[in-house]
């Protein structure tokens, strides 16, 4: 047997292993979908698939931003409360200024205010990290409590539903048979994928997360990078919060409770390292779809809500362990 044939044979034998190492979550997601098609009644129906896509859209819009934050070496625990506050701000503007600005004018100004506030809070969180050396874990944990409190203060603790006719289309409508939030989800994915993979800013994010001191010595403004990733995530949180308010027809302080954990879980399941410097927007897309499918599948199979929490916890731990094992064997 010649050396060439031996090499070819060895390469052929190793090809499946290399594929498994490169695309572990894609393979697991495909296996999960096949299992749910067989085991979960109605999972493969068009209506259910569209429902899953609508659900993951709200989560994924924030998760794509969170991917950049975690790659940069930081974290944001306030996104659930931020989404609730954004919906309440839009609802409050709609309720208070429809007479002066017109119904849609008030909604537009409210959304712009929520977007600006979301970006500003995220950006300032990054700067607090620089000025006072306060970990973003602590800062965003404080915001986690404060923002939900502000949301309830704005609405008086009750749902505020003074939205104009047609506002429900943003979160609950269909365009060409596809839920409208899915288009926002797809655009966010495309934008973040390009930003992180093909721009100098994306390369700076990876450099800062991989080795902050080396990035600083190479001339990168590390704090600007961290602040902008957090600000971007804050803005995307406002977008998602507005879509959620549209879907449920109200702004309320109880919206998106626990969403921050699902967002972080999707990012981790997608292969992003909590230590920073590694991760892909594509991986987060897989993580979001995986969470959406397994949550929907368990509901269709009448799995207890309490057991669903147990399963989610196990999945997060399993994803972390899998990524650690793959890092060692690559």
From TrEMBL:
Compartment(s) of residence: Cell membrane
Keyword Transport part of the UniProt annotation: yes
Pfam families (alphabetical): BPD_transp_2
GO CC annotations on file: plasma membrane
Main location: membrane
InterPro entries per record: ABC_transp_permease (IPR001851)
Membrane topology field: Multi-pass membrane protein
Keyword vocabulary terms for this entry: Cell inner membrane, Cell membrane, Membrane, Transmembrane, Transmembrane helix, Transport
Membrane-crossing residue ranges in chain numbering: 27-46, 52-70, 77-94, 106-124, 131-154, 174-195, 281-300, 306-326
Keyword DNA damage: no
Molecular-function annotations in GO: transmembrane transporter activity
Name of this protein: ABC transporter permease
Protein source organism: Shinella kummerowiae
């Amino acid at each position: 047997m010649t050396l060439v044939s031996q090499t070819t044979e060895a390469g052929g034998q190793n090809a499946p292993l290399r594929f498994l190492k490169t695309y572990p979550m894609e393979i697991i997601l495909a296996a999960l979908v096949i299992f749910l098609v067989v085991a979960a009644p109605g999972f493969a129906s068009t209506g259910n698939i569209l429902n899953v896509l609508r659900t993951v859209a709200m989560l994924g819009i924030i998760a794509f931003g969170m991917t950049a934050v975690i790659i940069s070496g930081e974290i944001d625990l306030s996104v659930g409360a931020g989404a609730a506050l954004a919906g309440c701000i839009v609802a409050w503007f709609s309720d208070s200024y429809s007479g002066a600005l017109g119904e849609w004018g008030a909604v537009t100004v409210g959304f712009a205010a929520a977007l600006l506030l979301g970006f500003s809070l995220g950006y300032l969180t990054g700067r607090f990290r620089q000025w006072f050396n306060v970990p973003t874990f602590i800062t965003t944990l404080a915001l986690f409590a404060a923002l939900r409190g502000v949301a309830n203060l704005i609405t008086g603790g009750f749902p505020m539903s003074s939205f104009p006719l047609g506002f429900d289309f943003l979160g609950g409508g269909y365009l060409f048979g596809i839920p409208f939030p899915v288009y926002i989800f797809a655009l966010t994915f495309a934008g973040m994928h390009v930003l992180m993979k093909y721009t100098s800013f994306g390369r700076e994010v990876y450099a800062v997360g991989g080795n902050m001191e080396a990035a600083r010595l190479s001339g990168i403004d590390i704090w600007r990078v961290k602040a902008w990733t957090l600000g971007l995530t804050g803005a995307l949180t406002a977008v998602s919060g507005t879509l959620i308010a549209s879907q449920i027809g109200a702004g309320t302080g109880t919206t998106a409770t626990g969403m921050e954990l699902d967002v972080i879980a999707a990012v981790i399941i997608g292969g992003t390292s909590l230590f920073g410097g590694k991760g892909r927007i594509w991986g987060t897309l897989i993580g979001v779809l995986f969470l959406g499918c397994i949550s929907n599948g368990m509901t269709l199979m009448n799995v207890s809500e309490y057991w669903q929490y147990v399963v989610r916890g196990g999945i997060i731990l399993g994803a972390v362990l899998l990524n650690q094992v793959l890092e060692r064997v690559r």
